[in-house]
């Protein structure tokens, strides 16, 4: 028996595990110290009242024979798929019910979706990039094109002129840089994908943070995208489902390669590999799309956006260079004093008790940068901001 030898090509330590090791070692040396965690993108606000109420009602349903639910439909409960569909339609995005799939979260889906593609396909990763994109393709033994970006293009690269990729990852708003693709730039990538027969995997986990109406929240706002794109969404950052796990994916029926419908392939995949997301969680997800749920979630997102504003104001006062933060929950900070990102991590931890995310974990072109998250508490964010200035 041979194991999957591709795992030998993975880095020894996953980014966030190394951060945990460093912070735990610091706390052992400094018991009782309070750390200001501006690193991992977990949320700090609880699920909103509308979601909790819906989940409580669903728990009660499970205690009665006539309302009990066992296995749920593998592609998602009709009541939730319909709510998601209506949300898209309300934004002028014309998709159908059968194109919406409920998932256990974007992270799971980003890995599972690779089942649709042959290992001979080449994946294009725009760096700096969420490390799971890279690792998932390494695990499957797939070749990759790493497309670097930097401050010269606002961390928003254009399609390569000479290289062809089969799978293209686009995350907007971007993790880690906070950069948001314009309609014009997304159109360039859609045209590139259609010309080359490529498929775009559009990671829209942070779309709810986009305030500028000129910036697209969905790839399907772009003409021609239905023949070349899959959109993966999450309720983790939108609605605080990081611990309860829920998301959704849109695969158009018109997305066909080699006479095979990727939509039908995904139905087959889900009915083979999953038993559906739990009834209780999906009922909670339904509440996200109600008027009351949307109002409460807007308040939560405003809370995190206020955190981002506090951090940006402090960084401006300190004369530091940064990107993102305006239509995204992440701030991409240029490390001062020519430090690399791990050196700056150690400096912030030791001198200011601030924990962030070293940019080198997101690719080679992130070595001189550092990611700050706005998902912490207001109190910790405010104190961390003061420490950047002093």
Give the gist of this structure.
The chain has 390 residues and is α/β, with parallel strands linked by helices. It is built from 12 helices and 15 strands. It has helices spanning 15-29, 49-61, 78-90, 106-112, 131-139, 183-196, 236-239, 262-273, 279-288, 291-317, 341-352, 378-389; strands at residues 36-37, 100-103, 123-127, 144-148, 167-171, 199-203, 229-234, 247-250, 256-257, 260-261, 322-324, 330-334, 354-355, 357-358, 369-373.
By CATH, the topology of the largest domain is Aspartate Aminotransferase, domain 2
Low-pLDDT parts are none
Helix content: 25-40%
CATH class division of the largest domain: Alpha Beta
Please state the second-level CATH architecture of the largest domain: 3-Layer(aba) Sandwich
Averaged pLDDT, please? 96
Number of DSSP-assigned strands? 15
Give, in spatial order, the strands making up the sheet with the most strands: 2-8-7-6-5-3-4
**How many domains comprise the coordinates?**
2
Order of helices and strands: HEHHEHEHEEHEEHEEEHHHEEHEEEH
N-to-C CA distance: 58 Å
Classify the oligomer.
single chain
Rg (C-alpha, Å): 21 Å
Helix-strand makeup class: alpha/beta
Beta-strand percentage range? 5-15%
SSE layout and pairing:
Layout: H1 15-29, E1 36-37, H2 49-61, H3 78-90, E2 100-103, H4 106-112, E3 123-127, H5 131-139, E4 144-148, E5 167-171, H6 183-196, E6 199-203, E7 229-234, H7 236-239, E8 247-250, E9 256-257, E10 260-261, H8 262-273, H9 279-288, H10 291-317, E11 322-324, E12 330-334, H11 341-352, E13 354-355, E14 357-358, E15 369-373, H12 378-389
Parallel strand pairs: 1-13, 3-4, 3-5, 5-6, 6-7
Antiparallel strand pairs: 2-8, 7-8, 9-10, 11-12, 12-15, 14-15
Helix pairs in contact: 2-9, 3-9, 10-12
